[in-house]
Amino acid sequence: MPKSKQKAKRRAAATTQDHDAPSDIIESAQEASLDDIRRANDESNDDDDDDDGAVAVASSSFAALAPAEDEPEDDNEDVAPAAAKPKKKKASKKKAKPAPESDDLDALLSAYRAETRGTDAASAASQSNASSDLSELNELLSVDSKRTDPEVELRKMFGSRVVSADSSVSKSRGSSRSRTLLVKPKQTWPPFAGAKGGLDMRELSDQDGIESRGRAERWFSYEHSPAYVEVQQRFLEAVMSLDGNNLIPVLRVHPYHTDTLLQLSEMALQQGNPNEALDFLDRAIFAYEKAAIPAFSLSSGNGRLDFLRIENRGFFRALLLKTANLVQRGTYSAAHEIAKALYSLDPYDDPMGVLLWLDFTAVKAQQYTFIEKLLASAREQRSTSAPDMLDLDGYPGLAFAAALSRFLAGAQGSEERLEEAILDFPMVVCYLTDKLGLRTPQIFSDHDRSARAVPSVRPDHCVHLLAQMYAHRSAVLYKPPEVQAWLQRGIAACESKLSAYAKPQKGTYPNAECPEGVLRNVIMSDVPSLKPMLSSGIVAWGAGYSYDNMPPKDAISSYDDRYFARLYKTQAQIDAMPVPGAASSQSTIEALMRRLGLFGGGGGDQSDDDGSDLD
């Protein structure tokens, strides 16, 4: 089924499902900065250190607001891999048929049975192949728990002295908080037992509009209980007050409320407290992991989350911020594992654009076969069960990363792969050589595909956006002399071939469109050189509220009237409400802001406010 129809089916299913329906109440929140990812993307190619060129997102956070207690916790809440449950076969309901009256009827029935058997066999074979292909993708995206701890990676690089005193104390005392897959809890954190506060998870089904691709993957969604909705209301009221101090009482009572933790993380970063910002970010991820059900498994790579649901989008955002933070710290193996986890949540749409990190982290983590395996798996998926999956062959960063991985691994064929990447995406040569201070051959500068793209209707606009982001983040990978020499040999070999290269440009989109995930990544990264390539409409879309920045245009749920309706309405009244999209969510917020005098002459100039604001 085409992707647009799948999303429409999921939205339609949301009108009849008895899950987190919303209400008539306040839907508001304050815009907070995206410094986490923006700092990770600071231009550092001018530095001599290889790690400086890696786009880094400084992560930070406030001191813990609740006292720590050493209460043991129930390990049952850990996220644990579980074997996928086989689907139950529906019992066949065959109606009794009258006895055949002629040989002709017997012949017709025999032919029908033969045709039905053939169709069923073909369908079963197709589903089996799809599951097999997905199993390969899942294995590639499975998260290795041994590689997610940045402290282990730092010890290997620099020795145990780099480990913070806080971590050493935590280890010596023995952690009473069971470790999750993605983060290691600290002794300074409040006890988690009983602190979920209504954040739960359920597995989605066909009734939710989710199309199953066999047992190789399972779709899930976080859920908010009425108690959690009340906390969410207090959070939004605190954010809309424009006073960040109002978030502190919310966190004291609800120390693992994820949106509050993410908001405070960004505030701490703005105020120059990167360590506190990271602490809040890790606590949010920890809360999401502890609230997950055992069937949701990141370690097996088959757990999916529906990004169209507001309850899930915070986890996507948190993992993108965590990836960028780990890159900034130089812990590339851990960054690669977190990036894989994020991509595995929805490898069909990649709603946070984490592919723009994976082409960097795979090389820095020395996972040299990862990119080629990912490309092969995506091609297989597109040719079989997921024709609307993102076309990864249209990502220039992946093409160059595949060639570079071969070269660094000493494998054969790196020159051929490099030349293929250069001919497919000659604009990357212009952006890379500019970053590296190398001479750009005139034929590349003059070539039509290399023309610098600005917001326009050119179908290759997105390709240029991707190419510039790759050069910005990965130019540091080409700084070593031997890599530069390899790159220049490839460029020289393509000079005589470029003008005659007639293959269609890969990765083009009509009307200068671009996948939403790519745009989210670019906007959150805040790379100055890329800003002119974003249209005013995209910039306006990205100027949303921090708790749900850049919601999908076909969102199933948002923090709006329908979300809060469960506090005030019956289920029948909720079911009768329309499923909102991003537009209705925005109108609800605007109505509240007007009521508070924050639009049209009511609130004054926020730029004169003190540092306690969330801006």
From TrEMBL:
In what ranges is there compositional bias, type Basic residues? 1-12, 85-97
Cite a single GO BP annotation: rescue of stalled ribosome
Please list the residue ranges that the record marks as compositionally biased, kind Acidic residues. Answer: 43-53, 68-78
What InterPro entries has UniProt attached to this entry? Answer: TCF25/Rqc1, TPR-like_helical_dom_sf
Q: Where is the composition biased (Low complexity)?
A: 54-67, 121-134
Point out the coiled-coil segments of this chain. none
Domain of life, per lineage: Eukaryota
Q: Can you cite an annotated GO cellular component?
A: RQC complex
Region named Disordered:
1-134
Q: Note one Pfam family from the annotation.
A: Tcf25
Would you tell me the protein name for this molecule? Transcription factor 25
